[in-house]
Amino acid sequence: MKCPFCGHGDTQVVETRISEDGDFVRRRRQCGACDKRFTTYERPEVTFPAVVKKDGRRADFDAAKVRASMALALRKRPVSIEQIDNALLRIEQKLLASGLREIESNKLGELVMRELKRLDKVAYVRFASVYRSFEDVDEFRQLLRDI
Questions:
Q1: Looking at the domain assignment, is residue 4 inside a domain?
Q2: For the purposes of burial, counting CB atoms within 10 Å of the CB of 3, is it exposed (0-12), middle (13-18) or buried (19 or more)?
Q3: Does residue 77 contact residue 120 with C-beta atoms inside 8 Å?
Q4: Over residues 121-140, mean pLDDT
């Protein structure tokens, strides 16, 4: 790794620590030329599938958008931030485990609805009512009967 101070290409690792949660490795390095020390972090690089929108456009998966949608459906409901984070983590894990390069937005929406159904039935109905764009009241009644 190049030294950020002098640009020299020879640096040595003098200390390595793994984070408490095991998500990254912190390394202290020392330059062989200028003797200055600096810190680097190593994290695994993961690639989520691209989301294919209804109109055919493709967008990068954005966990913040999914979290915001879930938070909106869960507004004023007795669900903690930790529960939302765990649900989002399960969605991300399913996406990574799928090995897909692309996922249709409706499939992603179904994953979100499954998690919301586990967390809070009212939030599930809120999300589904917007996500599924019901044409009439009977479709909405059917959703309610299903849960």
A1: no
A2: buried
A3: yes
A4: 75
Spatial contact of 116 and 97, defined as CB atoms under 8 Å apart: no
Q: SS3 string of 81-123?
A: HHHHHHHHHHHHHHHHHHCCCEEEHHHHHHHHHHHHHHHCHHH
Whether the full predicted model's pTM is greater than 0.85, yes or no, is no
The amino acid at 100: L
Q: For the chain, where are the alpha helices, taking DSSP H only? A: 63-73, 81-98, 105-119, 121-131, 137-146
- Which amino acid would we find at residue 74? L
Residues 85 and 68 in one domain: yes
The one-letter code for the residue type at 20 is: E
Taking the C-alpha atoms of residue 54 and residue 52, their distance in angstroms, rounded to an integer, is 7
Q: What is the mean pLDDT of the chain?
A: 89
- Is 139 among the domain residues? yes
Look at residues 62, 119, 116, 53 and name the one whose alpha carbon lies nearest to residue 92. 62
